[in-house]
């Protein structure tokens, strides 16, 4: 029974084009590596500095430099084949975090500097991936691809950190080892996965070559204006969620314990459900998924505003896990379709929109990080956290309103391909 099920799922995956499959497999390697490298990099920063602000400062550096990487890429691809930028940056975007181990004492400035380096390579990687992905995939395949990405990401985000956590515990008990060696081994394994991902990337036959005529769109259509609003508002909330989840746990809930188990089980269940949805859903269903992701978050933020307690904090964390998973599942197909719709669907000429998208996504992220630092500086931890959570929920609601009109415009386009799960 299980063997037949696996064969059936594999047959669905094999319906993808050869180059699309290779790109997806390389992304799997990226997901697995990042779930080890970035999660434990944040933990390493905290245990090395005992300062929660270090995580926010690191992420601020990353978000600022990502945009710089995007603009740098516009000049590099005029001189270097896109393949020779994309493949090395796929390793260096996470592998450059190993620089942390060369510092004896981590200051906020050194952490910010490492964040800038990591962000620069992330910018080079994502600027090319966001251009390549729509060219190698079809709109009616992307919900399935996004679903399987979510499943792989959630499974690896539970299993791998658990195994790595026990490795750190074991290393602390050994006379000739310590936690630092364990962190180095964990990041080393992550870098190995990144190198495996490059094998798939190198075997892709047709890498598209972007045609860059400008750094900003000359004429902005209505659907792209809606997409900009959706991006800024929604990613501001996602940045809030990525930052405050750990702060909530450390400051107000203490040791994760049962909460960690609940989060792990929920991640696996949600990942499996989203995978099944991705196999069956159509592009016109994307707004419904966004609505489902937003409502629990708004309710949880309202409950937290009314009564700040461990119960409402836990409810918010659960809502954030649900919201984050569903949001990113729907976001990539919406972004890819929005890029395709510009300038008559000539994807080679649409790199300017990939660049414009990154400007607005990082505008949302950087604004969110600055607001978080402001809130925790001028208010006490409880008040600041409540304000940040409520503002983030409002931003997600604003993004939902823009997405409603945007997805209606996208669904009005004729789908030229059939993908049958």
What does this structure look like?
The protein has 2 domains: 20-202, Growth Hormone, Chain: A; 220-411, MFS general substrate transporter like domains (Growth Hormone, Chain: A, Up-down Bundle). Residues 414-421 have low confidence and may be disordered. The chain is 81% helix and 0% strand. It has 13 helices and no strands. The chain has 421 residues and is mainly α. The longest helix has 35 residues, at 139-173. The protein starts with a helix and ends in a 10-residue tail after the last helix. The chain has helices spanning 2-13, 18-49, 53-79, 82-95, 108-136, 139-173, 179-202, 222-253, 257-280, 286-306, 310-340, 351-378, 381-411.
Please outline the helices and strands.
Elements (H helix, E strand, L loop, with lengths): L1 H12 L4 H32 L3 H27 L2 H14 L12 H29 L2 H35 L5 H24 L19 H32 L3 H24 L5 H21 L3 H31 L10 H28 L2 H31 L10
């Amino acid at each position: 029974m299980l063997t037949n099920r696996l064969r059936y799922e594999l047959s669905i995956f094999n319906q993808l084009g050869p180059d699309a499959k290779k790109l997806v497999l390389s992304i799997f390697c990226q997901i697995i590596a990042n779930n080890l490298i970035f999660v434990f990099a944040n933990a390493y920063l905290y245990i090395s500095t005992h300062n929660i602000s270090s995580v926010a400062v690191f992420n601020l550096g990353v978000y600022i430099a990502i945009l710089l990487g995007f603009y740098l890429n516009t000049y590099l691809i005029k001189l270097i084949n896109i393949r020779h930028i994309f493949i090395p940056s796929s390793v260096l975007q996470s592998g450059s975090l190993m620089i942390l181990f060369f510092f004896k004492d981590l200051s906020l400035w050194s952490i910010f500097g490492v964040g800038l380096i990591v962000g620069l390579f992330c910018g080079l990687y994502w600027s090319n991936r966001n251009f390549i992905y729509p060219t190698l995939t079809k709109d009616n395949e992307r919900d399935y691809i996004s679903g399987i990405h979510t499943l792989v990401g959630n499974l690896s985000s539970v299993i791998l950190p658990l195994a790595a956590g026990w490795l750190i515990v074991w290393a602390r008990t050994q006379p000739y080892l310590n936690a630092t060696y364990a962190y180095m081994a964990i990041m080393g394994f992550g870098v190995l996965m990144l190198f495996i991902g490059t094998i798939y990337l190198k075997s892709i036959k047709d890498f598209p070559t972007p045609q860059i005529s400008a750094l900003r769109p000359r004429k902005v259509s209505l659907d792209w204006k809606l997409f900009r609003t959706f991006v800024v508002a929604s990613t501001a909330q996602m940045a809030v969620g990525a930052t405050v989840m750990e702060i909530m746990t450390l400051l107000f809930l203490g040791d994760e314990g049962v909460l960690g188990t609940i989060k792990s089980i929920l991640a696996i269940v949600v990942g499996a459900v989203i995978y099944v949805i991705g196999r069956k859903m159509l592009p016109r269903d994307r707004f419904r998924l966004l609505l489902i992701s937003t409502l629990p978050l708004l309710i949880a933020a309202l409950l937290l505003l009314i009564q700040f307690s461990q119960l409402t904090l836990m409810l918010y964390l659960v809502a954030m896990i649900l919201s984050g998973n569903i949001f990113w599942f729907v976001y990539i197909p919406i972004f890819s379709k929005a890029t395709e719709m510009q300038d008559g669907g000539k994807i080679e000429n649409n790199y300017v929109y990939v660049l414009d998208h990154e400007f607005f996504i990082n505008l949302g992220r950087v604004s969110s990080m600055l607001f978080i630092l402001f809130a925790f500086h001028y208010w006490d931890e409880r008040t600041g956290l409540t304000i940040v959570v409520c503002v983030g929920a409002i931003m997600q609601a604003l993004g939902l309103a823009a997405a409603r009109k945007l997805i209606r415009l996208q669904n009005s386009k004729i789908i030229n391909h059939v993908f049958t799960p």
